[in-house]
């Protein structure tokens, strides 16, 4: 309850912001986009971490206006960077509650029109749970979103109570391998086998595969050899302010 009251005030005071973590393609050798991640800061200090305040926002429904704000802000930012530098995609995390809200699709369309971001430069990150528990209309909604040109990814892939059959029914473009599998990939046989299998499955199904939580060269080397060239993690950059991200992309990388 305490966090909820503070969160309402934080919204009004503009204490929420987005940080951006680079997504790289090691084959191209460049940053290809960023994941937008919510932060709640006052005077430059974190008030609560997202692990603390996002579940509260989900419980009290505030995640809907917060999520709408984040979507708009991320699109506005990506459009600016694309105009000033080069095409850069932005990934936005969408909570189940926000996604299932009746006005999600309309507000997505409005945001795309108003910010002018090319829809193919937007990626929505959903969890397996959101897709699985979304009900009958979820496949239709995913298809409508896809027909706008927006990409859909599954976040934390491999950690949900997943039956792989849903991959056949839902138009998912990108699998984001959870960092729990990447952590030990360079030395643990089981992790390596799981990651290899996800990459092979993704390729066979014509999906992109991105590895999350890449922290070391050893991990990046393994992933590259396994055929996974899209990566995200501390090795390439922590989530950073928009200003710092802009500095990264404005120099030749
Ligand atoms: O960046 P960080 O590790 O602090 O993020 C913690 C968690 O918060 C992650 O699981 C991430 O998916 C989630 N998160 C970050 N930003 C958003 C957001 O804008 N919307 C939603 N729904 N979740 C977010
Ligand atoms: O659930 P989601 O994938 O959206 O979570 C993103 C979170 O993962 C962010 O909070 C971010 O800070 C964290 N993260 C990103 N890269 C790394 C990494 O290389 N190592 C670790 N431990 N955490 C990371
Ligand atoms: Mn994510
Ligand atoms: Na993740």
Q: In words, what does this structure look like?
A:
This protein is of the alpha/beta class. It has a single domain (21-33, 62-250), classed as TIM Barrel (Alpha-Beta Barrel). Helices cover 47% and strands 22% of the residues. The protein contains 12 helices and 9 strands. The protein has helices spanning 2-12, 50-60, 63-84, 96-100, 104-115, 128-132, 138-147, 166-169, 179-183, 189-204, 217-226, 242-250; strands at residues 16-25, 30-42, 45-48, 89-93, 122-127, 151-157, 174-177, 208-211, 230-231. Strands 1-2-4-5-6-7-8-9 form an 8-stranded mixed β-barrel, surrounded by 4 helices. Helix 8 (166-169) links the parallel strand 6 and strand 7. It is globular and about 50 Å long. Bound molecules: guanosine-5'-monophosphate (G) (2 copies), manganese (II) ion (MN) and sodium ion. One guanosine-5'-monophosphate is lined by residues 37-38, 49-51, 54, 67, 70, 93, 95, 239.
């Amino acid at each position: 309850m305490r966090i909820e009251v503070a969160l309402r005030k934080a919204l009004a005071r503009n204490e929420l912001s987005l940080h951006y973590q680079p997504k790289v393609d090691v084959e191209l050798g460049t940053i290809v986009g960023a994941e937008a991640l919510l932060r709640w800061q006052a005077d430059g200090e974190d008030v609560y971490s997202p692990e603390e305040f996002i579940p509260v926002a989900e419980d009290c429904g505030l995640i809907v206006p917060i999520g709408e704000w984040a979507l708009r802000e991320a699109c506005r930012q990506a459009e600016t960077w694309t105009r000033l530098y080069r095409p850069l995609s932005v990934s936005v995390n969408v909570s189940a509650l926000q996604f299932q809200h009746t006005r999600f699709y309309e507000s997505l369309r409005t945001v795309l029109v108003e910010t002018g971001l090319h829809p193919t430069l937007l990626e929505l990150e959903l969890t397996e749970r959101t897709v699985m528990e979304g009900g009958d209309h979820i496949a239709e909604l995913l298809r409508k979103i896809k027909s706008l040109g927006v990409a859909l990814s599954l976040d934390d892939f491999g950690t949900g109570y997943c039956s792989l059959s849903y991959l056949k029914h839902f138009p998912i473009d990108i699998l984001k391998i959870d960092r729990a599998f990447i952590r030990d990939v360079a030395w643990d046989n089981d992790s390596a086998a799981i990651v290899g299998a996800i990459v092979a499955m993704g390729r066979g199904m014509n999906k992109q595969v991105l590895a999350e939580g890449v922290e070391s060269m050893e991990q990046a080397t393994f992933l590259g050899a396994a055929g996974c060239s899209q990566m995200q993690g501390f090795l390439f950059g922590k989530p950073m302010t928009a200003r710092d991200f802009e500095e990264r992309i404005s120099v030749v990388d």
